[in-house]
Amino acid sequence: MSTSFRRLADTYRDKIYTYAMYSLRRHEEAEDVTQDVLIKLWQNLDTVEPDRVGAWIMRVARNAVIDVARRRKTRLGIIAEDVDVDIAANYAPAPNAGTELGVERRELRESIESALEKLEEPYRTIIVMREIQQLKYSEIVDAVDMPLNTVKVYLHRGRKMLRDLLKPGYQRDVI
Fold it and tell me: Which of 33, 115, 146, 154 could cross-link to 165 by cystine, CB 3.0-4.6 Å?
Protein backbone atom coordinates (compact mmCIF):
# COMPACT_ATOMS: atom_id res chain seq x y z
CA MET A 1 0.00 0.00 0.00
CA SER A 2 1.45 3.34 -0.97
CA THR A 3 2.33 5.88 1.68
CA SER A 4 0.37 8.50 -0.24
CA PHE A 5 -2.82 6.44 -0.16
CA ARG A 6 -2.38 5.55 3.51
CA ARG A 7 -1.96 9.25 4.40
CA LEU A 8 -5.05 10.24 2.38
CA ALA A 9 -7.11 7.39 3.83
CA ASP A 10 -6.12 8.40 7.36
CA THR A 11 -6.97 12.03 6.61
CA TYR A 12 -10.37 11.47 5.00
CA ARG A 13 -11.74 8.25 6.56
CA ASP A 14 -13.51 10.02 9.42
CA LYS A 15 -14.93 12.76 7.15
CA ILE A 16 -16.37 10.19 4.78
CA TYR A 17 -17.85 8.15 7.62
CA THR A 18 -19.29 11.21 9.38
CA TYR A 19 -20.94 12.46 6.22
CA ALA A 20 -22.36 9.01 5.43
CA MET A 21 -23.60 8.52 9.00
CA TYR A 22 -25.35 11.91 9.11
CA SER A 23 -26.92 11.21 5.73
CA LEU A 24 -27.89 7.55 6.09
CA ARG A 25 -28.17 7.13 9.88
CA ARG A 26 -27.07 3.51 9.70
CA HIS A 27 -23.66 2.48 10.98
CA GLU A 28 -23.24 -0.45 8.59
CA GLU A 29 -24.15 1.61 5.53
CA ALA A 30 -21.83 4.42 6.60
CA GLU A 31 -18.99 1.91 6.96
CA ASP A 32 -19.78 0.44 3.52
CA VAL A 33 -19.79 3.89 1.93
CA THR A 34 -16.47 4.70 3.60
CA GLN A 35 -14.93 1.49 2.34
CA ASP A 36 -16.29 1.99 -1.18
CA VAL A 37 -14.96 5.54 -1.36
CA LEU A 38 -11.52 4.48 -0.15
CA ILE A 39 -11.43 1.67 -2.71
CA LYS A 40 -12.29 4.15 -5.46
CA LEU A 41 -9.57 6.45 -4.16
CA TRP A 42 -7.08 3.57 -4.32
CA GLN A 43 -8.17 2.73 -7.87
CA ASN A 44 -8.04 6.35 -9.07
CA LEU A 45 -5.17 7.75 -7.03
CA ASP A 46 -3.03 8.39 -10.11
CA THR A 47 -5.78 10.27 -11.94
CA VAL A 48 -6.97 12.59 -9.16
CA GLU A 49 -5.33 16.00 -9.06
CA PRO A 50 -3.46 16.32 -5.74
CA ASP A 51 -4.92 19.75 -4.94
CA ARG A 52 -8.48 18.49 -5.56
CA VAL A 53 -8.36 15.20 -3.67
CA GLY A 54 -10.59 16.40 -0.82
CA ALA A 55 -13.32 17.64 -3.13
CA TRP A 56 -13.04 14.48 -5.27
CA ILE A 57 -13.41 12.26 -2.20
CA MET A 58 -16.45 14.15 -0.91
CA ARG A 59 -18.11 14.05 -4.34
CA VAL A 60 -17.57 10.28 -4.52
CA ALA A 61 -18.89 9.98 -0.94
CA ARG A 62 -21.97 12.02 -1.81
CA ASN A 63 -22.64 9.89 -4.88
CA ALA A 64 -22.19 6.71 -2.84
CA VAL A 65 -24.68 7.98 -0.23
CA ILE A 66 -27.17 8.80 -2.98
CA ASP A 67 -26.73 5.30 -4.42
CA VAL A 68 -27.37 3.71 -1.02
CA ALA A 69 -30.42 5.90 -0.47
CA ARG A 70 -31.78 4.96 -3.89
CA ARG A 71 -31.21 1.29 -3.23
CA ARG A 72 -33.09 1.71 0.00
CA LYS A 73 -35.91 3.19 -2.09
CA THR A 74 -36.19 6.31 -0.03
CA ARG A 75 -36.17 9.85 -1.27
CA LEU A 76 -32.79 11.23 -2.33
CA GLY A 77 -30.28 11.24 0.51
CA ILE A 78 -32.92 11.29 3.21
CA ILE A 79 -32.30 9.98 6.69
CA ALA A 80 -33.74 6.57 7.52
CA GLU A 81 -36.90 6.32 9.56
CA ASP A 82 -35.34 4.12 12.23
CA VAL A 83 -32.77 6.58 13.55
CA ASP A 84 -30.66 5.22 16.36
CA VAL A 85 -29.18 8.31 18.00
CA ASP A 86 -27.36 6.21 20.60
CA ILE A 87 -25.33 4.44 17.92
CA ALA A 88 -24.44 7.76 16.30
CA ALA A 89 -23.55 9.22 19.67
CA ASN A 90 -21.07 6.40 20.27
CA TYR A 91 -18.96 7.71 17.40
CA ALA A 92 -18.77 11.23 18.77
CA PRO A 93 -18.75 10.85 22.53
CA ALA A 94 -19.06 14.00 24.54
CA PRO A 95 -16.37 14.73 27.10
CA ASN A 96 -17.59 14.31 30.68
CA ALA A 97 -20.58 12.33 29.39
CA GLY A 98 -21.71 11.41 32.91
CA THR A 99 -21.64 14.95 34.27
CA GLU A 100 -24.34 17.56 34.01
CA LEU A 101 -22.33 19.28 31.27
CA GLY A 102 -21.99 15.95 29.45
CA VAL A 103 -25.73 15.36 29.64
CA GLU A 104 -26.41 18.86 28.29
CA ARG A 105 -23.98 18.27 25.41
CA ARG A 106 -25.59 14.92 24.57
CA GLU A 107 -29.05 16.51 24.62
CA LEU A 108 -27.84 19.36 22.41
CA ARG A 109 -26.24 16.90 19.97
CA GLU A 110 -29.46 14.87 19.85
CA SER A 111 -31.48 18.05 19.25
CA ILE A 112 -29.19 19.06 16.41
CA GLU A 113 -29.31 15.58 14.88
CA SER A 114 -33.09 15.60 15.11
CA ALA A 115 -33.24 19.02 13.45
CA LEU A 116 -30.84 17.88 10.72
CA GLU A 117 -33.18 14.94 9.99
CA LYS A 118 -35.92 17.40 9.15
CA LEU A 119 -33.85 19.35 6.63
CA GLU A 120 -34.36 18.55 2.97
CA GLU A 121 -31.52 18.04 0.55
CA PRO A 122 -29.26 19.82 -0.31
CA TYR A 123 -29.51 21.85 2.89
CA ARG A 124 -28.54 18.90 5.09
CA THR A 125 -25.56 17.88 2.95
CA ILE A 126 -24.18 21.40 2.74
CA ILE A 127 -24.59 22.04 6.48
CA VAL A 128 -22.96 18.72 7.42
CA MET A 129 -20.05 19.36 5.07
CA ARG A 130 -19.49 22.93 6.25
CA GLU A 131 -20.43 22.95 9.93
CA ILE A 132 -19.65 19.41 11.04
CA GLN A 133 -16.86 18.41 8.70
CA GLN A 134 -15.57 21.97 8.32
CA LEU A 135 -14.89 21.58 4.62
CA LYS A 136 -13.81 24.58 2.59
CA TYR A 137 -16.37 26.18 0.31
CA SER A 138 -14.38 25.03 -2.72
CA GLU A 139 -14.58 21.41 -1.54
CA ILE A 140 -18.33 21.69 -1.00
CA VAL A 141 -18.82 23.32 -4.41
CA ASP A 142 -17.00 20.45 -6.09
CA ALA A 143 -18.72 17.77 -4.00
CA VAL A 144 -22.29 18.96 -4.65
CA ASP A 145 -21.60 20.33 -8.14
CA MET A 146 -23.19 23.72 -7.51
CA PRO A 147 -21.92 27.26 -8.00
CA LEU A 148 -20.35 28.92 -4.95
CA ASN A 149 -23.14 31.47 -4.54
CA THR A 150 -25.77 28.72 -4.61
CA VAL A 151 -23.90 26.80 -1.92
CA LYS A 152 -23.71 29.96 0.21
CA VAL A 153 -27.44 30.60 -0.22
CA TYR A 154 -28.32 27.01 0.75
CA LEU A 155 -25.97 27.22 3.72
CA HIS A 156 -27.50 30.51 4.90
CA ARG A 157 -31.06 29.22 4.50
CA GLY A 158 -30.18 25.87 6.08
CA ARG A 159 -28.66 27.58 9.11
CA LYS A 160 -31.81 29.66 9.52
CA MET A 161 -33.98 26.54 9.27
CA LEU A 162 -31.83 24.83 11.91
CA ARG A 163 -32.09 27.84 14.22
CA ASP A 164 -35.86 27.83 13.83
CA LEU A 165 -36.04 24.09 14.48
CA LEU A 166 -33.88 24.43 17.59
CA LYS A 167 -35.95 27.23 19.12
CA PRO A 168 -37.90 26.09 22.18
CA GLY A 169 -41.52 25.39 21.32
CA TYR A 170 -40.94 25.30 17.57
CA GLN A 171 -43.45 22.76 16.22
CA ARG A 172 -42.96 22.83 12.47
CA ASP A 173 -42.65 19.24 11.20
CA VAL A 174 -41.64 19.83 7.60
CA ILE A 175 -39.42 22.50 6.17
Answer: 115
